[in-house]
Amino acid sequence: MAITDSGSPDQRPLDQRPLEQRMQSNGIELAYDVRGSGPAVLLVMGLGAQMIAWREDFCDAVAEAGHTVIRFDNRDVGRSTMIDAAAPSPAVLLRKRLTKRTPDAPYVLSDMAADALGLLDGLGIDQAHVVGVSMGGMIAQTMAIEAPERVLSLCSIMSTTGNPKKGNAAPAVLAKMAKAQDRTRESAVADSTEFFRLISGPHFDPDEHAAMVEATLARSFDQRGVARQMAAIMASPDRTRRLRKLDLPTLVIHGLRDKLVRPSGGIATAKAIPNSRLLMFNDMAHDLPAPRRDEIIEAMLANMARAGVSVTA
User: Fold this and answer.
1) 133-152 confidence digits (pLDDT tens)
2) Of 59-73, 93-107, 209-223, highest mean pLDDT
3) Half-sphere exposure (CA, 13 Å, Cβ side) for 160?
4) For residues 217 and 210, what is the distance between their CA atoms, to the nearest angstrom?
């Protein structure tokens, strides 16, 4: 799911903003932008979230530390390709989740990882630090598993391993998610604000969140992709065993108040990946709270530095 307090749209003059572009990757088209120079950092967003959910100031801070920062719309969201396949009903997905049955899915997390790797290929980038939030953390983990030579370091934020016993959402959150596909463009701001108020921590700013929802509506509004992304998560296997074989600098970040991916998901991720570091906050839920952002960025940069790649490369 998107981070909740993603800030206002970029207010800089057009000639000072990163140029949004599109590229063919893995048989689809991805929308993306790039800023900065130095070793690449690929930012992977969560369920139903557009790339602009990565705050401008967040991206700028990483770029100013000496990195090329890439963010993109996953397939089925924003301005990337919407997959031509039936969207499963959220209610059906919820029933399958509760009965531990695997849903039919037009793609899985491995396909989404291949999308991201294809984007790096198209940009001529052999290796990148990969940072993922929620579903994006699952995609980032999958990239590290399936193409370890491409991933310099891994940062998995408010995510989990795919173990069905870890990181499960609270029942009240699941009930709300089952109704998400009923949103209309007219109700999107109010509905999204209500949902994110439920899954956020004490620093949630409803006005800031509403501004971000307005910005996403200006780019795209198609709810069908969210259900297909959820099906991809549910149809993908438990990564725990393969995560144990990873050998790369890894940082796991999680909020102790998270109701969407409960803290056991982050703890399981850190336990699975050898020599990983676990950073947990008692005032963070399924969000990146404003008072913790600088600390989170600092921890991310420190984890990247463990890879031993010079920022002047």
Assistant:
1) 999 999 999 999 999 999 99
2) 59-73
3) 24
4) 11
Q: What angle do CA 123, 125, 128 make, to 5 degrees?
A: 125
What mean pLDDT is predicted for residues 27-48? Answer: 97
- CA 66, chain centre distance (Å): 22
Residues 6+ apart with CB under 8 A from 98: none
Confidence of residue 181 (pLDDT cuts 50, 70, 90): low
Read off the pLDDT of residues 99-122 as tens digits, 9 standing for 90 and up.
Answer: 777 878 999 999 999 999 999 999
Sheet harboring 151-157: ordered strands across?
Answer: 21-25, 28-36, 68-72, 40-44, 128-133, 151-157, 250-255, 277-281
Q: Which residues pair with 211 in a beta bridge?
A: none
> With b meaning 16 or more CB within 10 Å and e meaning fewer, what string describes 260-270?
bbbbbbbbbbb
Does residue 311 have a pLDDT over 70?
Answer: no
Q: Please, what is the angle between helix 206-219 and helix 188-199, to 10°?
A: 130
Domain definitions of the chain by residue range: 17-305
What is the full DSSP assignment across 240-275? Answer: HHHHTT--S-EEEEEETT-SSS-THHHHHHHHHSTT
What do you get for the CA distance between the two ends of the chain, in Å?
33
Q: Where are the beta strands (DSSP E) in the chain?
A: 21-25, 28-36, 40-44, 68-72, 128-133, 151-157, 250-255, 277-281
Helix or strand or coil: residue 32? strand
**Residue 175's pLDDT band (cuts 50, 70, 90):** confident
CATH code assigned to 17-305 = 3.40.50.1820
Q: Which residues contact 119 (CB under 8 A, 6 or more apart)?
A: 23, 25, 30, 32, 42, 70, 72
pTM: 0.93
Bin 253: left if φ > 0, else alpha if -120 < ψ < 50, else beta.
beta
